[in-house]
Amino acid sequence: MTDDPDWTPATRLVHAGRHPQDHYGAVNPPVYRASTILQPDLATWREATKPDFPGYRYGLLATPSSRAFEEGMAALYGAEHCVAVSSGLAMITIAMLAFTQSGDDILVTDSAYEPTRTFCDGILQKFGVSTRYYDPRIGAGIADLIRPNTKLIFTESPGSLTLELQDIPAIVQAAHAAGVKVAIDNTWGTALHFNPFHHGVDIVLEATSKYVAGHSDVILGVMLGNGAVGRKLFVTAKQLGVCCGADDLYLAQRGLRTLKVRLDRSAESGLKVARWLEHRPEVKRLLHPALPSHPDHALWRRDFAGAAGLFSIVLHPLRHEQLGAFFDGLRLWGLGVSWGGYESLVIITDPSHVRTAVLWTETGHLVRFHAGLEDPDDLIADLDAAFARVAALAGS
Ligand SMILES: Cc1ncc(COP(=O)(O)O)c(C=O)c1O
Question: What is the pTM of this model?
Answer without folding.
Answer: 0.97
